[in-house]
Amino acid sequence: xxxxxxxxxxxxxxxxxxxxxxxxxxxxxxxxxxxxxxxxxxxxxxxxxxxxxxxxxxxxxxxxxxxxxxxxxxxxxxxxxxxxxxxxxxxxxxxxxxxxxxxxxxxxxxxxxxxxxxxxxxxxxxxxxxxxxxxxxxxxxxxxxxxxxxxxxxxxxxxxxxxxxxxxxxxxxxxxxxxxxxxxxxxxxxxxxxxxxxxxxxxxxxxxxxxxxxxxxxxxxxxxxxxxxxxxxxxxxxxxxxxxxxxxxxxxxxxxxxxxxxxxxxxxxxxxxxxxxxxxxxxxxxxxxxxxxxxxxxxxxxxxxxxxxxxxxxxxxxxxxxxxxxxxxxxxxxxxxxxxxxxxxxxxxxxxxxxxxxxxxxxxxxxxxxxxxxxxxxxxxxxxxxxxxxxxxxxxxxxxxxxxxxxxxxxxxxxxxxxxxxxxxxxxxxxxxxxxxxxxxxxxxxxxxxxxxxxxxxxxxxxxxxxxxxxxxxxxxxxxxxxxxxxxxxxxxxxxxxxxxxxxxxxxxxxxxxxxxxxxxxxxxxxxxxxxxxxxxxxxxx
Length: 542
Description:
By secondary structure, this protein is an alpha/beta fold. The chain has 18 helices and 15 strands. Among the domains are: 1-135 and 460-542, P-loop containing nucleotide triphosphate hydrolases (Rossmann fold); 189-339, no CATH class. The chain has a 6-stranded antiparallel beta sheet. A 6-stranded mixed beta sheet has the order 8-12-13-3-14-15, sandwiched between helices. Strands 9-10-11 form a 3-stranded antiparallel beta sheet.
């Protein structure tokens, strides 16, 4: 059965001794073989560039302007698709491509599905879905956190851990909220004084857009006081009259008197004249009333003072009357919140105090289960590595209690090994022999491959320093890991290569001409019965 995610094809152009090469890969175990110096390790070097390694312009083939590496993947894996979707490189169909171009000036261009991608994205992708065994200081399996994740997956503790993590996140959020409340309480009194001062200032003015508009109108009239006084005198002269003239009102009364006395002549106009008299009187009274109120100099001072208050508050709170009112609302809400901060603080402390003991109980349960499964996993791993030329070796996953609970519970893990009986246990990452570490990691892969998110496994020179039955056991182990994913391994042993589903033979060709000598590496794929034939020839040469 094909894995849901695997490498299909690798194109290498102008890359060291490779000029232009297309290499096909298949699900299962893909072995890369070839004589020393043929260029077989260059294939893994190219894949490492695809998976985010830094490029050196020295790898560009002589007399070439650039090197190109392009990898095509078949993908039906939901987790891979989701990851690519989230980083902005969605898959259309069941194939996606990663390409890198390295230029002579040292610059590189990276692409996922023909869209530009930074190197960090490629590195994040490989950390999640690819495992390279060979450069040991960078291996995921040497990370204590990752070892703990694998142990939880082996013990099927993931659901229990996720429930714990949800509560732990709730605790951390409550603790952040508590710190904020405590800081708020410390500065509360000072802040309350400040808020009250701002509110008093606004409330004294009691601002409104209508009030400001009316004040501006009054100011406009009042600042023309002298003109209005002259206008008042002129209108009085017309309506009331002076020493030498009779005003309009008196003249109108005289006119009415004449009409009444001669009613036989003006009987049809007397009522009209009476209406006109009322209208003239009304106009004069209305004008005098309005003008007399507008001519109050003391009121002008009050109007200007209130407008100054409007100007100051608008400048302070956003430039409009509405912004003053919005600020007032915010101040009122904050004041109420500050007044209740002590209640919120006590409630938050109570929640934290009730949550912590429960979390410690859950963390302890996880810890005890991890102790149990670590013992079983250690035994299984020891059995595996002892079949890989590590007779007498013992592997342990040591679980200790952390001083404080954290997002993963209260467990610390140390992955230790005793490779020579009686010589003591050491942390795996400190073991000197790279071959031993590779075999320990391979043993872990055999046990845990079906529990992990990793789908593609790269093994570099994993068979270094071994042979015979141990090499055969190593080949079977690689074949077992390949049942749950795709394995790509460099090997020089026919005992390992015989288990291959696909064999890639790398050979070096030296071409001589009158002008120069050039070296070119070529890769040829072998499958089915062809593998047996090639393995036989390898055995005859070794």
